[in-house]
Amino acid sequence: MVAAVEIMEMTMNEVQKLFDLTDQVAIVTGGAGFLGQQFSEALSEAGAKVVVADIDQAAAVAYAETLQKKTGSALGLKLDVTDPSSVQDLMDRTLKKFGQLDILVNSAALDPKFDNQNQSQNVTSFEEFPLQSWNDALDVNLTGMFLTCQYATREMKKNGKGSLINICSTYGISGPDQRLYESLGEPRRYKPVYYTVSKAGVLGLTKYIATYFEGTEIRCNALTPGGVERDHDQAFKDAYASRTVLGRMAYPHEMKGAVVFLASEASSYMTGTNLVVDGGWTAW
């Protein structure tokens, strides 16, 4: 009986070690954002030193200070993912502070729910969608991810090891259900075209990077969250929930386990794949 207990404890310790990120260094782009904070906190709780990188410098610094008090070492830095010099500065300052880079989580993105430039103009229809808005969004959502992956892998190549996690969306797998964005008595709104196109591109970029680094331990995977509950109105939450197998939107903390899994040795035999955490949205 004692031997069985000892074996069980040993097995549990081995499993726990697989998820342990102690002494690892992680960058989270968009790290001060809604989901970016969840990713940053999860990696920090798993033992990593976390660089919270965000276009909003004050928010990045403030959230890094919050992590510092709660879990350990963290650093907040300004990052414009569309600017190569800003990305290079991020890498330089990360290496100066922590000496290495092991994990990159690409969470920075324009999301039409929180980016009001098109909604304020009431221009979200495909037929009238502004070219400049399209270009701006692709610069952030796709080109920005290309740049951060490019600069991060230059550092990871030195050790032949690293984990890149690109945040996708269910709308990168299937087209949006535009009926969800209808509101009685209000002008018709749409999930804009750039969101689906850029998120689909994230999957292509992920597979390219994974296969490019074949023969190394540099892994690249995508994480696809379903809709996460925030400040949505009840009608939207009910409509969205009716489309999911679990009958609800995700809670923010439900993405934390997935990002730690992909960052850690627990997923050491995974690369070029997409981990979908969507409550069954895409299972129908």
Topology:
Elements: H1 2-18, E1 25-29, H2 34-45, E2 49-54, H3 57-70, E3 74-78, H4 84-98, E4 103-106, H5 117-121, H6 131-159, E5 161-167, H7 193-212, E6 217-225, H8 234-241, H9 256-263, E7 274-277
Helix pairs in contact: 2-9, 4-6, 6-7
Oligomer: single chain
Mean pLDDT: 92
Tell me the Rg in angstroms: 20 Å
Helix residue percentage: 40-55%
Q: What is the general shape?
A: globular
The total count of helices amounts to 9
Structural class: alpha/beta
Low-confidence stretches: 116-122
Number of strands: 7
- Summarize the main sheet: 7 strands, parallel
Distance between the termini: 46 Å
Helix/strand order, N-terminal first? HEHEHEHEHHEHEHHE
Which range does the strand content fall in? Answer: 5-15%
- What order do the strands of the largest sheet run in, or round the barrel if closed? 3-2-1-4-5-6-7
In short:
This protein is an alpha/beta fold. It has nine helices and seven strands, in the order H-E-H-E-H-E-H-E-H-H-E-H-E-H-H-E.
Question: Can you tell me about this structure?
Answer:
There is one protein chain. The chain is globular, with a radius of gyration of 20 Å. The chain contains nine helices and seven strands; from the N terminus they run αβαβαβαβααβαβααβ. Helix content is 45%, strand content 14%. It is an alpha/beta fold and 284 residues long. It starts with a helix and ends in a 7-residue tail after the last strand. Strands 3-2-1-4-5-6-7 form a seven-stranded parallel beta sheet, sandwiched between helices. About 2% of the residues have low confidence.
